[in-house]
Amino acid sequence: MKTIQTTAILTANRLTDRHYKECVTNRGLCPEWIAVNCRSMEIKEATQRLGYTALSAGIWLSGSNGFGQYRPNKPWKSPDEKKAPKYRTATREEYDAMLPRHPHNPGYWKDLEALKALCYHINGHPCLLLSEGLFKAIAGCSNGFPTVALAGVEQGLTSASNDPQGKRFLVDTLEFLARNGFGWIIAFDADECAKANKNVIAAQRKLACQLAKFKVPVYIATGLWSAAEGKGMDDYIQSNGGDAFRDKVLRLAVNFETWERQFKEDDSDNKTLSESVFAAQIAEDYRARLAWHVANKAWYWYEAENKRGVWGEIPVEEAMSIVLTELETRTRHFSSKFVNGVLTLLKAKLRVNHWEVRKGFICLQDCVLDVNTLKEYPHEPGYRMLSQLPFKWADRSVGCETVKEWLLEACEGKADWVQVIRAGINATVTERGGELQRFMELVGAGGTGKGTLLRLVQALLGRENYAITELKQLEQNRFETAALYGKKAVFITDSERYTGDVSTLKKLTGDDELRHEKKGIQQTGSFRFSGVVWIAANEIIQSSDYTNALARRRLSMPFERVVPQNERRPLEKEFQPYLPGVLQWVLEMPAKDVAAYVGDTNKLVPSLASFSTEVLLSTNPLADWANDCLYYDLNAQTQIGDNGQSAELFLYPNYCEWAQRNSHGIMTKQRFSAILLNLLKSQLNINAAKVRNKKGRFITKIAIRQPGHDFPLLVSEKDADLNADLSKSSANPVLTEMLTESVDSADFQGGADLLAHSNAVDTTNQHYLMNTTSSQNQEDKPAQSAHPAPARVSASTHASTTQKEVSTTQRIIEAWEDKSALGEIVLSLDSAELQQITKGFSPERLQYIKDAANTVWRLGADSQADYNGELVYIWECGQSNDVRIGTKQKPGARVRRAHLRPWLDI
């Protein structure tokens, strides 16, 4: 009674009355086995378990190994299903066989030797039953016949879609049991259609073949009882009992080899060409040249249109022509239905679910190139290349001096700008845009060279490797992103006339998923764009997004040098022969430099950092207001307030008043505070916060500018402002940073500390003390240099060397505001000494030193010079603007005098 009561309670807790009646009363299954293997499930829980929306409550059936199925009360049909399935499995879950959980013996499936003793034996060999569905397995196990359940007749083998070779193997549970010596009796449903259903027969034959490979006996019991006696083995046992099933079914089970013979005889008599056999032959012959691109829903052919090394999309008619050509060599008797059937099978056999181009390689007309080592490899289909640059790598010896000279002219002599462009082209060719998450924005009037630069990049890529679009189309046409798939670059025009949402542009440049939807073709998935977006406009892009999401992605470059109409040249035609040389020059840039110039442009190129500030002020009204009306204060805490309160005391009223005065729309208070915090924290690097007390909500670290205030501007002078925060003084931020770097060096020696005379002073006042300590004191007490001291030197030697470096460093600091004096000092130093002194300086300070040296440098024959970052020697120079340069041993080309700078080797 206790067991019955326990089972009844357990069953009541797990099954509704309806499900208990269905399982126990109607099906006649054992309540104890049902209680531990089945439970009722409502729609909400079923949806969570399945991973997609369930439309009906039902029963979840799950065995001891975890895999299970859902049987809805009311089966439903999805749009892509021909009929409503009675059972459903969870999405993205690998199917397996199901092992019914024993209600009293937890080791039922674990103790294999004990399990063999329970099995039905044929010729002394223990055999497990194999059927379809957990209910049938429960019926077998509860009647003394250990039975394994499959989710379906096809689910005894792994899915072919998960194997790129299209091979199917036993699911894990079946393989485990077969390896451990269990024989098998396959007992699928006995309805009349099973005997005539070729798919069921084929599935049974495949499954039996795979089981037999483990050298265990396999028997067939399917069809040994009539449909009138019960459709499945559970129905048969319910109607006739377990003994009858053992004596009239299992005893008559047929050896697989005997059962298989009937089909082999049928196969030998059938001389008709089979679709599956023919498709398998074509797949084997064409696997290296033909592929079905699942995401694109299109056929791809290797070296289509004679493009070496590249896979290209072909129309379905061309794929059909391949099938027809092969078919006609074998027979003249076939139908269009046969051809379409073969094409359908080929899609499964030649499918590529995720087309992955080999990373780190690019394809040219004569080779595949490793972009990291510049090593050449022959073309191979396995690279999965979708694009080819339109020239040969072997032609690169031509160089590209003409192109580099023009770039320097277009950038008005700024070599660091040329390096930014070079890095941008490198990221485009190597498809590192998704990694670096920046887009190139070229801004300037017509005739400044921005259009020529874009056409140079386009010529380098080739027409099929880039897409041209407009912001309006990109943001509002849902099919537009599909045209960007497989491209190395996207060029956007007419951007200055668009002021709307830029969410797609942010996804495009942020390595996010994009829709891959073609018109008239059902969307099959998404993709990430790994190329670079290039934008050329007469004005800066405006948008309704004032957060840092767009600001941090834009790499803006102004083009201001307008070339007179009569001086313009056909540069596209002029540059064409130099494209291979341009590619070599671009790829020779180290990957870390590419990442630095594209990803951290403002730090390496101060002049572009200034322009980025201009861009921020011109595109973000809130930043413009903050620059005009706020200032930084470390201890400030300013209330947000409501519109209508005092504009002198509260942030939001002050903003509203400014917006009305400057004809800007007014954003809501909630959006105002959120975007203001984003501006302060993410774009200005001010650690502001929104706090609340009894008086209201406040923003920290900022205050409202009042008449007479002369604080640094919050945005356009933010560097000086933040240095003021560090030093608590009005000292020159350049000097403060350089001195701070010296004091903060890890190599202080005892007695060599600038502040050794004031050890008791709190470290928070160090910056202030550094700017008030006299020059005499600094010379009397040797300061720590900005570079690491050499290891294992004597104290006297170290002190002498340090004293000399500090003395020179002090001279540089004192002359910092006088560029001519600074330049003379820099040119008087040898390379080694200058390298040691500037080792701790930031890139901005190094550039300042270089500019200072350039202002006083005088060009002369036999002198060294810097040409585009390379050391050259001057062979000839006179009154003209052309100077002949070369190596130390050999003269070279003539270049413009404005392109040369002093060689400092830093």
Automatic annotation (TrEMBL):
Residues 794-807 have a biased composition (Polar residues). The keyword Hydrolase applies. Residues 774-807 are annotated as: Disordered. It holds the Pfam family DUF5906. It comes from the Bacteria. Residues 416-572 form the SF3 helicase domain. SUPFAM superfamilies: P-loop containing nucleoside triphosphate hydrolases. PROSITE patterns: SF3_HELICASE_1. Keywords: ATP-binding, Hydrolase, Nucleotide-binding. One of its GO terms (molecular function) is ATP binding. PANTHER family: ATP BINDING PROTEIN-RELATED, SF3 HELICASE DOMAIN-CONTAINING PROTEIN. This is Phage/plasmid primase, P4 family protein. It comes from Nostoc commune NIES-4072. The lineage of its organism: Bacteria, Bacillati, Cyanobacteriota, Cyanophyceae, Nostocales.
